[in-house]
Design goal:
By secondary structure, the chain is α+β, with helices and mostly antiparallel strands. The chain is built from 11 helices and 5 strands; from the N terminus they run H-H-H-H-H-H-H-H-H-E-H-E-E-H-E-E. The chain has a 5-stranded mixed beta sheet with strand order 1-2-3-5-4.
Length: about 375
């Protein structure tokens, strides 16, 4: 479980395609095999259940132990896929898996007896790698108490005090591995955002160069052909010059069209990018001494909404830095909504400058609506949501 996660992301992960949508990472095809290696320690409860003299309890114990092994393998694969995608598992899903695991161990206990407590290590690993540390510590503490108490109150169970040390060490190791994997994932996504930002900046530089160099030349050509046409008009009527006048007029028209195309192309490459705005927002907030709580992935945002959401992030973060007096700022993204919140002074009666007016116009043109007001943290909230 320690090395596979660090090697899971393929080389092409997160590479943007032509429409600007990044390729979603896919976990390795055989990543689930590595989770099964750790299931070897379930051999002890499986062996204990297999030798139970009662057929019913034997079948129930063996089946429950195998189901527990499948649960752990399935959970690890799901957790790994969500981590690679930058979306940690929801706490309620983790708690559901833990409850199912406890239920399976309970069914295996009549046949496996004290050997069933080996499953507590797997439950501790699941909690430490998936839950916030206060909840994870609560789960681990409960499991540790069960390891100490159950063998002393249930008949025919031997004390498993040495299992307590294994459980605590496994929990500590799982917490460390989970933190390393989370940091590596964040670093990988930060690198991808920097690459996308560099590409956007290079496109903007190229647009400026094309506009400045080619646009200037086309402007000069347009002016000179217009001047040539006026000079020809000053010449007396001559059938031989009619063709020249027509050709000069065509050249002037072509130059004007080409100049308009250059300006349109240059303007089209200056669109904002959502990953770039998030990277710029993090830098601006940190420079202002404001704690930044920003998403590390933009995969769930449709390509058609990314430019609007980028403008919303830019406007919202700019207002936080300039006017809020906040110490914390958070950005939340979903497929239909972007939200910028802070814990500053909150909305003022005069809120609603030209920046918000322009963002409102952009949102309405795209079929969204702009909402502003107090945030749950007591500051200001800017929200762009699908109408």
């Amino acid at each position: 479980m320690t090395t596979t996660e660090q090697q899971a992301a393929p080389a092409t992960a997160g590479t943007p395609v032509d429409d600007g949508t990044p390729v979603v990472r896919q976990p390795g095809r055989y990543g689930w095999v590595f989770s099964c290696i750790w299931l070897i320690y379930l051999w002890y409860p499986l062996e204990a259940a297999w030798v139970d003299p009662h057929p019913f309890w034997r079948v129930l114990g063996v089946g429950s132990t195998l189901a527990f092994a499948g649960l752990f393998a399935w959970f690890f694969v799901s957790w790994r896929a969500q981590r690679i995608a930058g979306r940690p598992l929801a706490d309620h899903r983790v708690l559901q898996a833990l409850l199912v695991g406890v239920g399976l161990l309970t069914l295996a206990a009549p046949a496996a007896h004290d050997a069933a407590l080996a499953g507590a290590i797997y439950l501790a690993v699941i909690s430490m790698m998936s839950l916030p540390w206060p909840r994870a510590l609560t789960v681990v503490g409960t499991l540790a108490a069960a390891v100490l108490v159950l063998p002393r109150v249930l008949p025919h169970w031997e004390n498993e005090d040495q299992l307590l040390l294994s459980l605590l060490l496994a929990s500590f190791a799982a917490f460390g591995v989970g933190q390393v994997i989370a940091r590596n994932s964040e670093l990988l996504r930060a690198r991808e955002q920097l690459v996308e930002l560099a590409v956007a900046q290079e496109r903007a530089r190229l647009a400026r160069d094309v506009h400045d160099i080619l646009g200037h030349s086309l402007t000069v050509i347009t002016v000179k052909t217009e001047l040539a046409g006026r000079l020809l008009e000053a010449v007396g009527p001559d059938p031989r010059l009619d063709r020249v006048r027509a050709e000069v007029a065509d050249v002037e028209a072509l130059a004007r069209v080409a100049l308009a195309d250059v300006r349109a192309t240059a303007a089209g490459t200056r669109t904002v990018s959502l990953p770039g705005e998030l990277a710029a927002a993090r830098q601006a907030l940190e420079s202002a001494g404001i704690t930044a709580d920003l998403p590390i992935a933009t995969d769930e945002v449709p390509a058609a909404s990314r430019e609007l959401f980028a403008w919303a992030v830019r406007e919202g973060v700019t207002n936080v830095v300039r006017h809020s007096g906040a110490r914390w700022c958070g950005v939340r993204l979903s497929a239909t909504c972007v939200e910028v919140c802070d814990d500053g002074r909150g909305p003022c009666p005069s809120a609603g400058g030209s920046g918000l007016a322009g963002l409102r116009d952009r949102a309405e043109c795209a079929g969204f609506r702009l909402e502003t007001g107090a945030s749950p943290e007591g500051g200001f909230r800017l929200r762009v949501v699908a109408a």
